[in-house]
From TrEMBL, chains A, B:
It comes from the Bacteria. Transmembrane segments: none annotated. One of its GO terms (molecular function) is coenzyme F420-0:L-glutamate ligase activity. Residues 12-210 form the Coenzyme F420:L-glutamate ligase-like domain. Keywords: GTP-binding, Ligase, Magnesium, Manganese, Metal-binding, Nucleotide-binding, Potassium. The keyword Nucleotide-binding applies. This is Coenzyme F420-0:L-glutamate ligase/coenzyme F420-1:gamma-L-glutamate ligase.
Length: 361, 361
């Protein structure tokens, strides 16, 4: 058994309206059933007319590019300097929504295909219907990734095979069940295609031979590769998520319970602010039910959902500025509690004491 | 031109102390100069004795695993449930530090090689010195990644070729210079190797033939692929970075200037808290130099670095609890300013007014 990776040479420049199936079949009369075609998304975009006119240079070019990027963006994921990592309308997370200025006139930008899975299906169907070839098609593009330098080619669209090869449920020779081994084989195939494309000039299509038996249609396509942001541990850039945390601190809602806060977590929150609050300020966590019930009885507006009480005592003597500072320190503690996942509500102090405050948690 | 990907079959089970060069050369007498060997890290680990004994099941197994993971971890990047994404001592960011329980007895765990680049160099040197073979060696492992479902194989170590192929400075046929095209070809080679390894049972080594001309030693190895956390837009998980923002809000340092704050950003911060502060609270941004100078003269402790002033006016009448609430609201505004990148210092109010506060920004 072996795989071969072959370049399709001689396709030449692709322009709007070109018939990719004819170009590829003409350049590679040696194609066989079961081959996997790895097609650079750029020629798909060009054939489909996914080009926009832009000024060749100057601020007008940058403005036009920004407008186009906004159109191609479903959600901004991270920004640093002029780099913008976005989620496209397809769901792919990539720099500049995959908009590309290379291998095109200086007055045009190339956008990603509108529906790369559909592009792959159409090309597969055209090769089958008009040339009698039963092949799988991958539409590929070059992407960066977190944590690792260098780019790799991955799949934007696929037809004729599933995007993922699922080993779950298989058992290794030692009897261990394989739990998480879903391999993104179309990404590996796209990368394998890049190896030969990158070695040659102007080779937008590679063929992987020997991988597939008989192609089969798979409705899900490369959408199977898109992880929903809600499931992703890295749905936002670090800086953006940090800012989200600061904004959350600015707008902390009143929230308590329903589960009693872990006393160790409350201690961590109190410790976190110990060095920044006014000297002499003391925060005390009251967890004992009876004490808390007694205190709660003295606190107007005590929320029924509260499962604990944090008492703050300001240093005395107090003037109005000290009380403002004390309030700021209580809010610091609320942010520290929120960092531990503990909601809180600022209440008037028990017994109306000027030098104290109460947080229901 | 074409590439071939060939499986090395018949290597069998690898155990501590095994001579990988002998096993591979014996199983693949057809190896040639210029071949790229993609070697699954697990057999490298096993040969190098990177195995640890653990209980076969129960809480003791989990405890042991946690201890081992802590040892293999340089930095925790993200956690959700039992999933822990960490940066290893090599710098790789991966789930569970690459610790693996598959393809090994139930009472052992396999750790990553201590230095996969060194492992690759040693294997390359052994094949050259003892078998006269001039090949490149990639030590590969399977990893997940943000944003995309499915795993791919990538390189942990490499010898005999650079990890990255640099197209920067090249010019495309349209005259556009290629700026950012550094391809992580060893990751694509590792993925290509996985395609054949995943199709066969128990094939821990694949050979990519036709990619390299003559191997050459490269000192940097796969370390070239490790992006420093300080350069990474995704150095922390979204949840972890959000918590970091909350912690930052809890401990906001006194900081002002040196550049005047963008008035639009200050307005955004004031707007962000408008709905959550006590009704009637008013925040005003004072930017005019003379007004500011006059106000600053009335504010004790006004920092020389301050380039603006935010005045807060609490609703009147005030009792002590209202002042505490007002202080909490001022701290909310400080967090909102920090989210805009604007530092601030809480000062006593100008003229000692009980119902006001001043923030130097």
């Amino acid at each position: 058994m072996r795989l071969e990776i072959l370049p399709v040479q001689g396709i030449g420049d692709v322009t709007e309206g070109d018939d990719l199936a004819a170009l590829i079949a003409g350049a590679a009369p040696w194609l066989r059933d079961g081959d996997v075609l790895v097609v650079t998304s750029k020629i798909v975009s060009k054939a489909e007319g996914r080009l926009v006119d832009v000024p060749a240079d100057g601020p007008e070019r940058l403005d036009a590019r920004d407008r186009i990027l906004a159109d191609e963006t479903a959600r901004v994921v991270a920004t640093r300097g002029t780099t913008r990592i976005v989620q496209t309308h397809h769901g792919f997370v990539m720099a500049s929504a995959g908009i590309d200025a290379s291998n095109v006139d200086k007055t045009r930008l190339v956008l990603l295909p509108v529906d790369p899975d559909a592009s792959a299906r159409e090309l597969r169907a055209a090769l089958r219907d008009r040339y009698g070839l039963d092949v799988a098609v991958i539409v590929s593009d070059t992407m960066g990734r977190p944590w690792r330098n260098g780019l790799t080619d991955v799949a934007l669209g696929v037809a004729g095979m599933p995007a993922i090869r699922d080993h779950r449920g298989e058992v290794d020779p030692y009897g261990n069940e394989l739990f998480v081994t879903q391999m993104a084989v179309v990404d590996e195939l796209a990368g394998a295609g890049e190896l030969i494309k990158g070695k040659c000039d102007q080779v937008p299509v590679a063929v992987v031979r020997g991988y597939l038996g008989t192609p089969r249609d798979d409705d899900e396509g490369a959408r199977a590769l898109v992880r929903d942001a809600s499931m992703d541990l890295f749905s936002l850039g670090t800086a953006e998520a940090r800012v989200a945390g600061l904004r959350e601190a600015a707008t902390l809602p009143d929230r308590t319970g329903p589960d009693p806060a872990d006393p160790a977590a409350v201690r961590r929150a109190i410790t976190a602010v110990a060095d920044v609050v006014a000297p002499g300020t003391v925060f005390t966590h009251v967890t004992d039910d009876e004490v808390r019930a007694g205190l709660a009885a003295g606190v107007p507006g005590w929320p029924a959902s509260a499962t604990g009480l944090l008492l703050g005592a300001a240093p005395t003597p107090l003037d109005p500025a000290d009380l403002v500072r004390f309030g700021a320190d209580v809010q610091r503690l609320r942010a520290a509690l929120a960092a531990e996942g503990i909601g809180s509500v600022l209440l008037p102090p028990p017994g109306g004491s000027a030098a104290s405050a109460a947080l229901a948690i």
